[in-house]
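Take a careful look at the protein record below. Let me know whether the structure tokens fit the sequence:
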Amino acid sequence: MCSSSECPVTSIPAFNLTEQYRRIGAELETATAKVLASGGYIGGQTVADFEAAFAAAMGVTEAVGCNSGTDALHLALRALDIGPGDEVITSPFTFFASAEAISLAGATPVLVDIEPQFFNLDYRQIEAAITPRTKAIIPVHLFGHPAAMSEIMAIARAHNLRVIEDCAQATGATWQGQPVGSFGDCGCFSFYPTKNLGACGDGGLVTTKNPEVADRLRSLRQHGMRVRYYHDEIGLNSRLDALQAVILSIKLRYLDEWNQQRQAIAQRYGEAIAAIPGLVAPSVHADAVHVWHQYTVRVQACGDRSRCVSHPCDRQGLCRDWLQQQLQAQGIGSMIYYPVPVHLQQAYSQLGYKTGDFPEAERAAQEVLSLPMFPELNEDDQARVITALKDLAIAAVQS
């Protein structure tokens, strides 16, 4: 194991867009220059063309671009008439926006614990959380692994509930051969730059097979108007601009290739991590095609964070926070998604949840560590990550 002074100068970030730009930058610059020269920056044919191409790729008839993945969730809830007095079931282990959008719509998030193998909503616990006020379920396809959509849809049909899929991290993933975003009433996507399909700025989109819902979404994203200056309801200013749409149109052509590269990287990680004590590789369900937005391992926490970041735990095993610090010292980036589950966030203290309510989400928050993952991560750099993990695991055991 090299010391920080001996390690290669070049760092390995958790995510890197520069190699992608080197490959397709000329295409992006040519296309964006045409949009700039056109003078049409909001809406128009460029946006419509991307929406049509994305809908076809996701196996739906309608796609409505918007400003962000958060807005996509908010607009979907509004378009389905979910608001004050309603409850919406979702995961406590997700990016905050999954629950935040429910609150922004005026409804109340109701949380259900996750499956430990896949980090997604545990469908076996959903029915116990349903009340007369429940109107919808928002399953999150976390880290690129689809939630159990066949089971979730069966529960929703049995209880006459809407389903809004949070697909922010899973563009291109499938469950039983069907793309995520095509199961529920709506699918909500984020085009934040780090996503599998990322814009050069913020962007989002809602998919649906219902033309009436699509019409409502298009109205809501533009101040509640279908005819200019005639407002049918209170909406938002949440439009996908033409520059982002043309960038996404080009990147969409590469999505399958990039996802396959992520899958190859994940396979190499998995084969190596199986032999590293103290690390648990992520699982993949037999019905799922995972697109590996993140490659997230589990590393057992020691319970004393201040001690973990100074040296390995007394129990002679890897500690997540110590491991992350040591990787960083070697120029290797990693991320913790997410250190605090939704139910323990200060913003949701009024919901009355407490530590221990969702043990699997809480355990995941203590153990997860996402390793470098992006399509252009080359085998040499990945080998360096794996070697560092092996050496640190040995050091932790021997300390």
